[in-house]
Design brief:
CATH superfamily: B-lactam Antibiotic, Isopenicillin N Synthase, Chain
Number of strands: 13
Order of helices and strands: HEEHEHHEEHHEEEEEEHEEHH
CATH topology: Jelly Rolls
CATH architecture: Sandwich
Structural class: alpha+beta
């Protein structure tokens, strides 16, 4: 991966946050007022438990019917958990260990790799923090391209092993992301010839990507704060590893009898959570959902996650696929590049997708 022009979208729209850097959470015995949320926490209920038929699907990628299963999950949930994905479990475990090692470093050490206001890589708050009145109980570290420069700052004498793990993880994620793309698109009847920016071999060689490392420390008052505010993902798809012993990821669902609410997505051993991003929603002309999701925190456990954010080539024009259009199915969204969209998202946040809307969907 190369940061290349992808960084330009962030430099053109710098994010200035409430504070320059996160607090040292381990030193906080009470929830500071700056982290006390009064909105978004209870506007809809959280569904603590639902039946298996009402939970995020778990899909075995070796299932003979995987294309149909993935398509149905994307249409109904915009999210699923993938097992039998081919990524070695040892690599996943080593990546989680790297993340835990990074966030357990002393605050002053982490600040040596601090993200600049107009930057994309490094340590700091999530960019979505700029749209929140209160701070989020979390830390983040973004990697675009090689992690070498930042890891040399974090671990001057011991960076090589962490770099090797991260680069191998990125390689496996890129391979898996291309496979998932064709499972998603295959369910819509889309072939490699239908997407020019997929490359001559249809492997999305020029795809853009970022690795987002997230830390959600144990919190003295978890019911009054937020780990990561509600949002949709600005990319094609996200591949998320969440630590095994602590739940925190929630997805927003339109219920039937229960009404609307937040559903916990518990970790499944050996599985990745797959999120449909805004760009798959655009490509599918609204057939695939881009789910609103968030992260909550807990009182006793330090939760971490690793999100691989997979997007199109920076300057590829993305629009609803022509095979999905017709007299009764006009394009719902205007063409846009990921560069342009990241800039729009930096200004409009969760209203960015709606700003591209051309038509209302026809029943």
């Amino acid at each position: 991966m190369s940061s290349g022009k992808l960084s330009d979208a962030f430099k053109s729209h710098p994010i200035f946050l409430h504070k320059q850097h996160p607090d040292d959470f381990s030193s906080l015995q009470e929830l500071p007022e700056s982290y006390a949320w009064t909105s978004q926490l209870n506007e809809y209920p959280s569904f603590e438990s639902l039946s298996c038929s009402e939970s995020v699907p778990v899909i075995d990628l070796a299932d003979p019917n995987v294309v149909e299963l993935v398509g149905h999950a994307c249409k109904t949930w915009g999210m699923f958990q993938a097992t039998n994905h081919g990524v070695p479990q040892k690599l996943v475990d080593d990546m989680e260990s790297t993340v835990r090692s990074l966030f357990s470093l002393p605050p002053q050490q982490k600040l040596k790799a601090a993200r600049l206001p107009d930057g994309i890589s490094g340590y700091g708050f999530h960019r979505i923090s700029a749209f929140c009145e209160k701070l989020m109980w979390s830390e983040s570290f973004t990697i675009v391209g090689s992690p070498l420069q930042h890891f040399c700052q974090l671990w001057p004498q011991d960076h090589t092993k962490f770099c090797c793990v991260t680069e191998e993880y990125e390689k496996e994620m890129k391979r898996l992301a291309a496979r998932l793309m064709w499972l998603m698109l295959g369910s819509l009847g889309i072939s490699k010839e239908d997407i020019k920016w997929a490359g001559p071999r249809g492997e999305f060689e020029d795809a853009s990507a970022a690795l987002q490392l997230n830390s959600y420390p144990a919190c003295p008052d978890p019911d009054r704060t937020m780990g990561l505010a509600q949002h949709t993902d600005s990319n094609l798809l996200s591949i998320i590893h969440q630590s095994a012993k602590a739940s925190g990821l929630q997805v927003f669902q339109e219920g039937k009898d229960e009404g609307r609410g937040w559903l916990m997505v518990p970790p499944v051993p050996g599985a990745f959570v797959i999120n449909v991003g805004d760009f798959i929603h655009i490509l599918s002309n609204g057939l695939y959902q881009t789910p609103l999701h968030r992260a909550v925190v807990n009182r006793s456990q330090h939760r971490v996650s690793v999100a691989y954010l997979y997007g199109p080539p920076e300057n590829a024009q993305v629009s609803p696929l022509s095979k999905l259009l017709g007299p009764n199915c006009p394009p719902l969204y205007a063409p846009v590049t990921w560069n342009e969209y990241l800039g729009t998202k930096a200004k409009l946040n969760n209203k960015a997708l709606q700003s591209l809307r051309l038509n209302a969907p026809l029943n």
